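=== RUN LOG ===
request id: a7f3
mode: sequence -> structure
chains: 1
length: 247
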Amino acid sequence: MKIKKPEPFTFEAGPRAVLLLHGFTGHTADVRMLGRFLEKKGYTSHAPIYRGHGEEPESLIKTTPEDWWNDALSAYNHLKDLGYKEIAIAGLSLGGAFALKLASNNQVKGVIPMCSPMYFDNTEQLTQGFRTFAKQYKQFEKKNTEQIDSEINELMENSVPMFDHIRTFFHDVKDVVDLIYSPTMVVQARQDQMINPESAEFIYEHIATDEKAIKWYEESGHVITLDKERDTLYDDIYMFLESLNWE
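=== RESULT ===
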């Protein structure tokens, strides 16, 4: 059974632009509802899909965090090429790390990291998340249990270099948080089982800007953009964006 590949999106609605960045193993579905919400509020949004994402898990391990970072950077430049001069960035999980890195060396209007990791002390959770994603994908392809188990075991063995690169990338981003002067809204789900929630405190405490806030969502899990408090989150993001000094 062939699975339809998701696609990037651009919802143009006004001169204020927001780059929306999805998480590891995810794709634009992570942020599409948020994009539509912002569109109704008059904000343009663009969301890319990083290389290897939105495809079979075997494609993912053939790529690296550097590839994904370059895709996020290209998406930022895409908005600039479209003529948007003022861009805010909101990113989920890995996408939040990309948002922070972008904000550390670009003039961004504001940055919203959501459930974004700063520590690589959760190797087990990340690899388990990848295993779960791979299993669900293969089940959707209607493969039998024996074939799925065999393919996943091989996949996990071959994924070690990818996770080594992810570890290095997180460490590199952690080192540049104190270079960020853009207004920042740190978002963290209290029920997050994927990352160390102390990451949110680290970002808030070390980010250089004085214009910063941290918001906890008590009933939400890691994919906070799709969880039960998403409407509250969307409203909070909108209020943060409205508070920025747009030209």
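=== NOTES ===
The first helix runs from residue 32 to 40.
Residues 104 and 180 are 5 Å apart (CA to CA).
=== END ===
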